[in-house]
Amino acid sequence: MFLSPEAMESAKLRAAADQAAGAGPPSRSGEDELPVFDRDGMLRRLMDDHDLVSTIMDVFLEDLPQQIETLKCLLERGDASGVGSTAHSIKGAAGNVGGERLRRSALAIEEAADAGDLRSAAGCLADLELQFACLKEAMEQHANG
Amino acid sequence: MRSLVVEDEFISRLALQRQLSRFGESHIAVSGEEAVAAFRLALGSASPYELVCMDIRMPGIDGVEALRQIRKLEDEEGVLPSKGVKIFMTTAVDQVKEVVESYRALCDAYLVKPIDGTKLLEKLLELALIP
């Protein structure tokens, strides 16, 4: 079955795209509606497969620090394409584990790098690291709780 | 159902492959180049792929180009369009433009990442990939 472009551009998808497009660096107001860790969403997407959830969280926590280091190296080297790709991967990984704030932060870096604006991308790095630290803590709390 | 997951990001790949493995053998490719090579090999074998889940943004040839090359291989082998492999493009919500381009190049559906297992199941049923 082929969906028509009209069907594809459903209101739902448009709304989601608009939301994503509007997702810049997080506000500092403290009124952040996005969750640090949407574990329920992750469980739902993985159809309550607790083994898979656990495996994915373990892999994520092991892999992300390395990806962040790679991102830093690429930023230092001024490799916009590499920064965009790595931020895209971090965004994908964060989305899978329900790390909504980390996902938003990675998207901001991806968009800045894709626009060739490495200064802005570098400016979002501290937030990315902060969001990963918060997510890691939330995940470990869940694992231990 | 024999499937191929094409995804360069490890966690997305792991999640999707594990979900598809419930319905049969599921292989992985980490780039567009690998995907086309794997598809070519399978097409000439006794058990070609019934489903390809294709990421769009990948280093090297991207998902849209890999999609075009897979359809070209099918053309060259005389596969009727109605009998072609089902291809789902997997895309982030902020890649809508690329999805539109994918549809022009004849994919069968799209799944927004992170992929929701229930929605994946719905698409598999809708396209009669699983009973």
Could you list some keywords that capture this structure?
heterodimer; A: Four Helix Bundle (Hemerythrin (Met), subunit A); 8 helices; B: 131 residues; Rossmann fold; 5 helices; 5 strands; 43% helix
Structure in words:
The complex is a heterodimer of chains A (about 140) and B (about 130). Chain A contains 8 helices and no strands. Chain A has one domain (about 35-145): HPT domain (Four Helix Bundle (Hemerythrin (Met), subunit A)), CATH 1.20.120.160. Chain A is an all-alpha fold and about 140 residues long. Chain A starts with a helix and ends with a helix. Chain A has helices at about 5-10, 10-20, 40-45, 50-75, 80-95, 100-115, 120-125, 125-145. Chain A is about 75% helix and about 0% strand. In chain A, helix 4 (about 50-75) runs antiparallel to helix 5. Residues about 1-30 of chain A have low confidence and may be disordered. With about 130 residues, chain B is α/β, with parallel strands linked by helices. Chain B has a single domain, classed as 3-Layer(aba) Sandwich (Rossmann fold). Helix content of chain B is about 45%, strand content about 20%. Chain B contains 5 helices and 5 strands. Chain B has helices at about 10-20, 30-45, 65-75, 95-105, 115-125, and strands spanning about 5, 25-30, 50-55, 85-90, 110-115. In chain B, strands 2-1-3-4-5 form a 5-stranded parallel sheet, with helices on both faces. In chain B, helix 4 links the parallel strand 4 (about 85-90) and strand 5 (about 110-115). The radius of gyration of chain B is 13 Å and the shape is globular. Classes of the chains: A mainly alpha (about 140), B alpha/beta (about 130). Chains A and B meet through helix 2, helix 3, helix 4 and helix 5 of A and helix 1, helix 4, strand 5 and helix 5 of B.
